[in-house]
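Field reference: sequence -> structure
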Amino acid sequence: MTDVYYSADSYDQNMLSQLESNVKPDRADFDLLFGCLLEWGLPLSMPYTSEDIEGCKVHIYNDGDLIACFDENIPEGVIKEIANRKPLRAVFRDSGFKGSPEKINVGETFKLISPDTRVKII
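Structure field:
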Protein backbone atom coordinates (compact mmCIF):
# COMPACT_ATOMS: atom_id res chain seq x y z
CA MET A 1 0.00 0.00 0.00
CA THR A 2 1.08 3.56 -0.54
CA ASP A 3 3.04 5.09 2.31
CA VAL A 4 1.35 8.14 3.82
CA TYR A 5 3.56 10.46 5.77
CA TYR A 6 1.24 13.40 6.27
CA SER A 7 -1.23 14.08 9.02
CA ALA A 8 -4.77 14.87 7.94
CA ASP A 9 -4.39 18.60 8.52
CA SER A 10 -1.33 18.69 6.21
CA TYR A 11 -3.31 17.79 3.08
CA ASP A 12 -4.67 20.33 0.66
CA GLN A 13 -6.91 20.15 -2.41
CA ASN A 14 -3.94 19.91 -4.81
CA MET A 15 -2.80 16.64 -3.21
CA LEU A 16 -6.06 14.74 -3.89
CA SER A 17 -4.93 13.37 -7.27
CA GLN A 18 -2.01 11.66 -5.51
CA LEU A 19 -4.48 9.81 -3.26
CA GLU A 20 -6.70 8.26 -5.95
CA SER A 21 -5.08 4.85 -5.55
CA ASN A 22 -3.89 3.42 -2.27
CA VAL A 23 -1.74 0.80 -4.01
CA LYS A 24 1.85 1.54 -5.00
CA PRO A 25 2.10 1.77 -8.81
CA ASP A 26 4.84 -0.88 -9.06
CA ARG A 27 2.80 -3.58 -7.28
CA ALA A 28 1.44 -6.64 -9.08
CA ASP A 29 -1.53 -8.86 -8.20
CA PHE A 30 0.68 -11.28 -6.30
CA ASP A 31 2.03 -8.45 -4.13
CA LEU A 32 -1.53 -7.56 -3.17
CA LEU A 33 -2.52 -11.20 -2.68
CA PHE A 34 0.38 -12.02 -0.38
CA GLY A 35 -0.11 -8.74 1.47
CA CYS A 36 -3.70 -9.80 2.21
CA LEU A 37 -2.57 -13.25 3.33
CA LEU A 38 -0.09 -11.71 5.75
CA GLU A 39 -2.63 -9.19 7.02
CA TRP A 40 -5.07 -12.00 7.85
CA GLY A 41 -2.32 -14.14 9.36
CA LEU A 42 -2.72 -16.91 6.79
CA PRO A 43 0.27 -19.16 6.08
CA LEU A 44 2.09 -18.55 2.82
CA SER A 45 2.75 -22.28 2.42
CA MET A 46 -0.80 -23.24 1.39
CA PRO A 47 -1.64 -23.88 -2.29
CA TYR A 48 -3.09 -21.21 -4.54
CA THR A 49 -4.13 -21.04 -8.17
CA SER A 50 -5.17 -18.37 -10.62
CA GLU A 51 -7.90 -18.68 -13.20
CA ASP A 52 -9.66 -16.55 -15.76
CA ILE A 53 -13.32 -15.74 -15.15
CA GLU A 54 -14.98 -13.56 -17.79
CA GLY A 55 -11.61 -12.08 -18.69
CA CYS A 56 -10.64 -11.28 -15.10
CA LYS A 57 -7.74 -12.89 -13.25
CA VAL A 58 -9.03 -14.49 -10.07
CA HIS A 59 -6.71 -15.86 -7.36
CA ILE A 60 -7.89 -18.79 -5.24
CA TYR A 61 -5.97 -19.50 -2.04
CA ASN A 62 -6.28 -22.88 -0.32
CA ASP A 63 -9.46 -24.00 -2.14
CA GLY A 64 -11.46 -20.95 -1.09
CA ASP A 65 -10.03 -19.74 2.18
CA LEU A 66 -9.53 -16.53 0.21
CA ILE A 67 -10.52 -15.55 -3.33
CA ALA A 68 -9.23 -12.28 -4.75
CA CYS A 69 -9.67 -10.28 -7.93
CA PHE A 70 -7.63 -7.12 -8.40
CA ASP A 71 -8.67 -6.26 -11.98
CA GLU A 72 -10.17 -2.98 -13.10
CA ASN A 73 -13.92 -2.78 -13.88
CA ILE A 74 -14.88 -6.19 -12.51
CA PRO A 75 -18.12 -7.39 -14.13
CA GLU A 76 -21.07 -8.39 -11.96
CA GLY A 77 -20.82 -11.94 -13.31
CA VAL A 78 -17.34 -12.32 -11.80
CA ILE A 79 -18.59 -11.11 -8.42
CA LYS A 80 -21.48 -13.60 -8.53
CA GLU A 81 -19.18 -16.46 -9.57
CA ILE A 82 -16.85 -15.73 -6.66
CA ALA A 83 -19.80 -15.47 -4.25
CA ASN A 84 -21.22 -18.77 -5.54
CA ARG A 85 -17.97 -20.48 -4.53
CA LYS A 86 -18.67 -19.35 -0.93
CA PRO A 87 -15.11 -18.45 0.09
CA LEU A 88 -14.26 -17.63 3.68
CA ARG A 89 -12.79 -14.30 2.48
CA ALA A 90 -13.10 -12.29 -0.73
CA VAL A 91 -10.83 -9.36 -1.61
CA PHE A 92 -11.14 -6.77 -4.35
CA ARG A 93 -9.20 -3.68 -5.30
CA ASP A 94 -10.99 -0.37 -4.75
CA SER A 95 -10.24 0.74 -8.31
CA GLY A 96 -11.90 -2.43 -9.59
CA PHE A 97 -15.21 -0.61 -9.40
CA LYS A 98 -16.48 2.52 -11.14
CA GLY A 99 -17.87 4.03 -7.97
CA SER A 100 -19.52 3.55 -4.61
CA PRO A 101 -22.75 1.99 -5.94
CA GLU A 102 -20.79 -0.88 -7.49
CA LYS A 103 -18.88 -1.44 -4.22
CA ILE A 104 -22.16 -1.47 -2.27
CA ASN A 105 -23.57 -4.00 -4.75
CA VAL A 106 -20.61 -6.31 -4.05
CA GLY A 107 -21.52 -6.37 -0.37
CA GLU A 108 -25.19 -6.95 -1.13
CA THR A 109 -24.40 -9.75 -3.60
CA PHE A 110 -22.35 -11.55 -0.98
CA LYS A 111 -25.05 -11.03 1.68
CA LEU A 112 -27.53 -12.81 -0.59
CA ILE A 113 -25.35 -15.60 -2.00
CA SER A 114 -22.63 -16.16 0.60
CA PRO A 115 -23.47 -14.32 3.82
CA ASP A 116 -20.64 -15.91 5.81
CA THR A 117 -17.94 -14.57 3.49
CA ARG A 118 -15.84 -11.69 4.84
CA VAL A 119 -15.55 -9.18 1.99
CA LYS A 120 -12.77 -6.62 1.90
CA ILE A 121 -12.08 -3.90 -0.64
CA ILE A 122 -8.53 -2.56 -0.49
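Note: The longest strand covers residues 48-53.
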